[in-house]
Every structure is written in C-alpha cells, then in structure tokens.
Amino acid sequence: MPTTSRYARDVAVVAFAQSDHRRRSDELSEVEMVMPVLHQVLDQTGLKAGEIGFTCSGSSDYLAGRAFSFTMTLDGVGAWPPISESHVEMDGAWALYEAWVKIQTGEADTALVYSYGKSSPGSVRDVLTRQLDPYYLAPLWPDSVALAALQAQALIDAGETDEAALAAIAARSRTAAEANPHAQLRGGAVEQGDYQVRPLRTGDCPPIGDGVAAVVLAAGDTARRLCARPAWITGIDHRIEAHGLGLRDLTDSPSTRIAAEHAGVFDAPVDTAELHAPFSSQEVVLRKALRLDGDDVAVNPSGGALAANPVMAAGLIRIGEAAARIHRGESDRAVAHATSGPCLQQNLVAVLEGEPA
Amino acid sequence: MTAASPPEVLRAPLVVEFPFTRSLGPVQSAFLTGLRERVVLGVKTADGKVMVPPVEYDPVTAEEIRELVEVGATGTVTTWAWNGSPRPGQPLGTPFAWVLVRLDGADTAILHALDAPGPEAVRTGMRVRIRWAGERTGAITDIACFEPHDAEATEQATPHDGQFADAVTGIVAAARLDYTYSPGRSQTAYINALADRRTVGERCPSCHKVYVPPRGACPTCGVATTDQVEVGPAGTVTTYCIVNIKAKNLDIEVPYVYAHIALDGADLALHGRIGGIPYDQVRMGLRVEPVWTEGGRHPDHYRPTGEPDADYDAYKELI
User: Fold this and answer.
1) What is the pLDDT of residues A54-81, one digit of tens each?
2) What domains, with CATH codes, occur in chain B?
3) Domain named ChsH2 C-terminal OB-fold: which ranges (chain B) (predicted)?
4) Helical axes A280-289 vs A163-176, angle rounded to 10°
5) Is 60 exceeded by the pLDDT of residue B2?
6) Helix A280-289 vs helix A144-157: angle between axes, to the nearest 10 degrees?
7) Residue B218 and residue B15: Cα distance in Å, rounded?
8) Residue A199, preceding bond cis, omega within 30 degrees?
9) Percent of chain A having pLDDT more than 70?
10) Alpha carbon of B301 to those of B8, B91, B238, B271, B298: distances in Å?
11) In this complex, do A197 and B171 lie within 8 Å of one another by their Cβ atoms?
12) Which of B236, B221, B293 is nearest to B270 (CA)?
C-alpha cells in the first residue's frame, strides 16, 4: 500500500468497464444494455460471475418508468440460485460504497458493482423533480436545469465565475472527451448555444443519454492477483447538505469538503481529479471545496459528466475513470467525486492510489 | 424506426401517475394552513434563526422545533434563473424567473416563481411580494408566484401560535410522468411472434433452458439468450389459483382461474387465465391451449385440449 491504511482491509478497484453512452437505446432492454459491460469488466479480471463475493447495483426505476427494472438486470449477473447482492436507488458510486463496506466487514473478498441509467424513455428534467421535498418543492416541478441555474447565478453574483468562464469549462471538458471513445458529446467545437435556464446555456448542461458502468473491487492479495496495478481506495466518505435549498450557501459545498477531509484528500497532492459536475458551474464549487485551484491537477481528463451523464452511472464512472488512469500508470494519486440530488446535495469523495512501479 | 435498427423497434406510450397522500407534522400543518389564510409562518431554530419554509426538526441539532413566528409577505431575491420555456406543472405558463426569496423577518429563502416581463427586469436583491392564488387549499401552490414590489423591508418576525380553524393535516400531491416504452431486442421478437399467433421463447446457449417469455438473459448463467425456439401452442397447468375478487376495469366474471402454464418445450411457466371449463374443475396437470380473439396481441385465455392430464413427473420441475 502506498500509505498506511486507516481501514481494516486494503481494498482496490481492479477493473472498470463502461458502455458507449448514447442519446437513445430503444433497441435494448436494460439487461441487454447492462450485460455486455458486466462481461467486459469480469473478463478483465478473469473472474466468473459465480466467483464474485458480493454484487451491488445502483439505478432508479423512475428514469425509464419500469418498476423493479433492477431485478431484471440482475439476470445479467447470473443471480439464480440466489447470490449475495444488494441495490441502491442511487448513483452506482454509493453502490460501490456499500460493496466497500461489505468487503471491510470480511464477508466478501471481491465485489461487482454496476449501475445504469436509461433516461431516453422519459423526460429526465421532469423525472428528477420527483426526488425533491414533496411538500415545498415537488409541487412546483422545479426541474434539474432550473435548480442548477439558481446555483450558477449565485456563483456569478458572488463574483466566483461568469458566463465566459463557464463556457471555458464546458469547452475544456468536451475537448478532453475527444480521447474518450465512450463519451456522448466530444470536441471543442460543441456550441454553447442558447440559454436553457439563464444563466445556463445548452453547453453548460450535460447531454441526456443512456449508459452503463461497472467496476470490480478486491481486497489485499486478491487485488494484486487480479490486477497488475490496483487502484487502492485509501479513503472514501460521503456527506449530505441540509435539504432546504434556501438554507444552503449554494456557492459552497461543505459536504464535499468534509468528505474530502475524512477521505484524506488533503494529506498529499493529487495528480488527477474526476469530478461529477453535471453542470459547468458545479465544477467551480467542487474545485473550491477540493482545493483544486491550480493547473497542476488533471481535472476530468475523461471529459466528465459534461461529455456523458448517464444518470445513476455518471458518479461511478468518475471512480472508474480515476482508477483506470492508475491501472494504466497515468496517475499515482487521484481524487474521485460523485454527487446526487439538486445543486450538489450529496457528495461522495474517494482517494485512489497506485503503488510505485 | 431507423434503417440501422432492424427489426422494427416497438414503442408504446406509458404513463406513470400517482396521487401521493402525505401527512403533515405540526409545523408543516401550521405553515400550509397559514398560506391558505394568507399568513406566512416560519419556525425558530435552536440558534434563533427564522426558517421559511419551516421544518419540524432543527437542521443542525436535530432538536424538535415548534416556536412559530409570522414573517412578511414581502421579501428580497437571493438568487434567480430565467425560465424562458415553462414546463408542465410549473407555477406559471408564461416565461418567468425561478427565485429564492428571503421573506422579511426570515433568515432563509423559499423557492418559487417570479412573474416578471423579462430577465432584464430581474436581479438579485430586488424586492418582491407574494401574489396569492385565488383558490387556496393549504399547499405551497397557495402562493401563485411572487411579483415585483418596490418597497423597503420593514417587517420583523412576530410570535404566532400557529392556531387556525380547520387546520390542514395532509396534502395530496399529484404526479404524472410520461414515457415511451420500448421493450428491447428479446421481448420485441416475442411480441412480434405473438402477432402471428406464435409463442417464441429463447434458449440459453450455456444451460439450454428455454425461457418464455424471454427477458434477454439467463438468470442462472448471466449470458444472453439468443437462440429463438417456438414453443406450445399447448401446455400444462403446473399450478393455479381461483380469483374471487373482481379487478377494476377488468371485464371477467368471478370466480375464474389464473394459472401457471408450462407450454410444451418451455422450461419456465407463464401466466394465463383458464376458460372453457368450470373453475372448480381446473387441476394441476390439465392440458390447455391458447384461445385468440380477433385483433388480440396475446392469447385471451387458455382452454382444455381434451387430452389426458400430464403426469406429475412431467412438469414437477416447472412448478
């Protein structure tokens, strides 16, 4: 291990796979979309589905409007006779957290974590209003772009960004995504376009699409056996803001900062940051909370959520992308972040490290 | 349908609609009843802040908080966003600004819509007031929206007992989401075959089980079921129940029999209604065949074939 672990067991991401993220996937059911990615991630480790100690998935039935769709996707892992598995109605990053805890308890040595989002059958902006406070917010149907725009305006009013700076974040993300064959939106020439909800323009918003991600976790010597250079999770923590939007300072993210402190982000420099910022303005908030103010850190070399944002998978993809850079020897210490809810409501931060060659 | 996705991708509208009935705590009840009476209430937190809209528990200490205060119907915009294309269900049908407003006397902000002629008429720090809905029921929508209001803040929070005649104790929140359902490769093939009155399952290439209806994957092997296999048309009742309760919008006389039917060649039983035989004569092992109705996309029900009953050993693995 690169640093002394504060946890009972050393756990690493040993494999990561994702689908090509696309605007629609009408010709595939959810399990048909998920299964190839499960096979790819298992192939990387040489493990068979039946050899996995624990399986955990993340998804939301509201996205495609299909009740219990996650039980259908379980067919894709060979869940009969019954395997040890669980599901979170959250981004797969939180499924990874549950799997990491399961391995910490000693009940499993390996875990398969996957998540998927099929937003194309519905109107995801409206669907996401159903996760809001049912008394004071949901009856007004404030959509995800509107809430992000309120946060963006607060940042502009505070002098922390402006529309040109937001456009630069969007352009940088999609330029970086040129090297990412899975990205949905890539190329520096992607237009900023018109206002969706002012001050956010089309370019400040994530593409809407369908996609899948999967990782394999393993503990100790098993991780070393399955992967030439495991991405050790040396810290992981998640925190949530008060749920009243009007109670929060929307220009800051105390939950991200505290999670980062507990994950040990600030104990040593990082060379890579994969941030789950679906809106350009949210990168401004996250950079501040994670103290990523210089150019010495590669921020979202994958293109981030502005290049592909399959809801419920985009956070897990951040962990997977950071881990894959460590696997490839392109990073030694990376921070990965995932978010959930409106205006960066809930935030998970993980530190991933590779051993010296 | 595109040339790149043969066979034809099936699509159908799917509506998910719920009237969520939710009960209110004492603070929420006072707040929403107050809106009905055109009174805006907040709650004092443990550190003396006035929260509007109010909650039942202190967000910092988790203490139960019950000290209500009345705040103004006027306030100040703390942030805004111009919504040029209102979406279904939103407070106004014409372009408006989403706003967070700190009402006079409050320390936190409330989300709502601001009716303004255009984005140039909106700024952070502008003064606004509540425009009340004509008909109020005790809901956040009793505030129709905010409107510009050029007057200085004067009001302070004043104590309020939260008592109103006929307090609201719950809300009914309607929610409707519209989807376009497409069943995917495996179920599309199944549905298309049904249109020709054929039942086509899929075989697992690994364990060779035939799944009907197919879901695209073998749950034992975790691989795609790709080989199509026509099964039936006849099958065996593996188990059944007698339905005595009439379902809403279902034009079937009770009692009737609902059964698991293993079609010949299938390794999984499907569900179907049994007709053409008195309900109390249906039994495990009964041999049945599908009955189609004109224009139906699946069998209406199954009826006895008249063959001798199947041996228990022939279907016991499929129960």
Assistant:
1) 999 999 999 999 888 898 899 999 998 8
2) 13-176 (2.40.50.840), 184-318 (no CATH)
3) 69-132, 229-292
4) 90
5) no
6) 60
7) 29
8) yes
9) 98
10) 27, 47, 16, 10, 9
11) no
12) B236
pTM beyond 0.90:
yes
Spell out which residues of chain B touch residue A31, defining contact as CB-CB under 8 Å.
Answer: 184, 215-217
- Using CA atoms, how far apart are residues B84 and A125, in angstroms rounded to an integer? 15
Helix (H) or strand (E) holding B192: helix B184-195
Q: Which of B22, B100, B186 sits opposite A246 (nearest CB)?
A: B100
Query: What pLDDT, in 10s, does the model give residues A79-104?
Result: 988 999 999 999 999 999 999 999 99
Nearest Cβ partner for B16 among A65, A74, A154: A65
Q: Tell me if chain A has a CB within 8 Å of the CB of B162.
A: no
Give, as one character, the DSSP assignment of residue B167.
-
Are A92 and A149 a contacting pair, CB within 8 Å?
no
Q: And the tokens for A342?
A: 């409106």
Check CB contact under 8 Å for B224 and A66: no
CATH for A124-206+234-353 (3.40.30.10, 3.30.1360.120, 3.40.47.10, 3.40.50.2030): 3.40.47.10
Residue A338: other Cβ atoms inside 10 A? 28
Structure token digits, residue A277: 């910022």
Name which of B79, B136, B145 to mutate to probe chain A: the one with the most chain A Cβ atoms within 10 A of its Cβ: B79
DSSP string, B282-302: --TT-EEEEE--TT-SS-SEE
Residue of A nearest to B113 (CA): A140
Query: In sequence order, which residues have a C-beta less than 8 Å from that of residue A12 and are 6 or more positions away?
Result: A217, A218, A219, A223, A227, A230, A231, A232, A233
- The residue among A340, A319, A313 whose CA lies nearest residue A57 is A313
- The Cβ of residue B244 has, within 10 Å, a number of other Cβ atoms equal to 9
Where are the alpha helices (H) located in chain A, listed in sequence order? 30-45, 61-64, 69-74, 92-104, 124-127, 144-157, 163-176, 220-226, 254-263, 280-289, 314-327
Distance from CA of A270 to the nearest CA of B (A): 32
Which CATH code, of 3.40.47.10, 2.70.50.60, 3.40.1180.10, 1.10.10.10, is assigned to A11-123+208-226?
A: 3.40.47.10
pLDDT band at B193 (very low <50, low <70, confident <90, very high): very high
Amino acid identity of A253? S
Q: Are A199 and A192 within 8 A, CB to CB?
A: no
Give dist(CA B231, CA B200) in Å, integer: 6
Q: Where are the domains of chain A?
A: 11-123+208-226, 124-206+234-353
Please report the DSSP string for B61-126 in residue order.
Answer: T--B---EEEE-SEEEEEEEEEESS--TTSS-SS-EEEEEEEETT-SS-EEEEE--SSGGG--TT-
- Name the residue in chain A with its Cα closest to that of B59: A242
